Amino acid sequence: MTDVAHELGALRLIVDSPLSSKVALFNQTAQSHRESQLTNPFSDAQATRGMARLQISKEEYGKPKAGSLTEYRGKKANIQVYQEMLELCQVIDVDGQPVSKKNPDMKMIYFGELFNIYTHINDKLVGLLLRARKHEFIQFEGECLFQRRDDHVPVYLTKPITQIRDILVGKQTEIRRSLSPNPQPTNMLP
């Protein structure tokens, strides 16, 4: 074997070695990290070169990247909140009194009674009441209800429980269908 062939064989052995592939993978990861740090406002790398301006449309502003773990967690949390709102409305329906004889589906319960019943189920009653009012499932006077001070304030269901259940289960189903089966960490997305 000639010296040139021997050197090429040794070079091929070095290029194809497991160590060289690991070094190449490390270099590739390091380069992608350097590039991601240029858009990170908390990184020192952007201070030396000047940070590239992030382009976000109005629809994307304040929302997580599609397919990210953040988006996945947010959607899972929404499913849970819808379930808790449904449970709250069911408690009002079961333990509340009909508002009128003409419309027995519309129920009312006083906040003090609801507080005593619901605190055994969930400790986030006031927040759920505000959220359910925002979705127009319940109605009560005032901005926020407080224990003892507002015990006499009536809380009304604004829709029949079957309609509320259909709406909330529909929203949960819609979110479940939109969940990514394989969410990715945000920093791994392009």
TrEMBL record:
<dbReference type="Pfam" id="PF14705">
    <property type="entry name" value="Costars"/>
</dbReference>
<dbReference type="GO" id="GO:0045944">
    <property type="term" value="P:positive regulation of transcription by RNA polymerase II"/>
</dbReference>
<dbReference type="GO" id="GO:0030017">
    <property type="term" value="C:sarcomere"/>
</dbReference>
<dbReference type="GO" id="GO:0035025">
    <property type="term" value="P:positive regulation of Rho protein signal transduction"/>
</dbReference>
<feature type="domain" description="Costars">
    <location>
        <begin position="79"/>
        <end position="158"/>
    </location>
</feature>
<dbReference type="GO" id="GO:0003779">
    <property type="term" value="F:actin binding"/>
</dbReference>
<protein>
    <recommendedName>
        <fullName>Costars domain-containing protein</fullName>
    </recommendedName>
</protein>
<dbReference type="InterPro" id="IPR027817">
    <property type="entry name" value="Costars_dom"/>
</dbReference>
<dbReference type="InterPro" id="IPR026111">
    <property type="entry name" value="Abra"/>
</dbReference>
<dbReference type="InterPro" id="IPR038095">
    <property type="entry name" value="Costars_sf"/>
</dbReference>
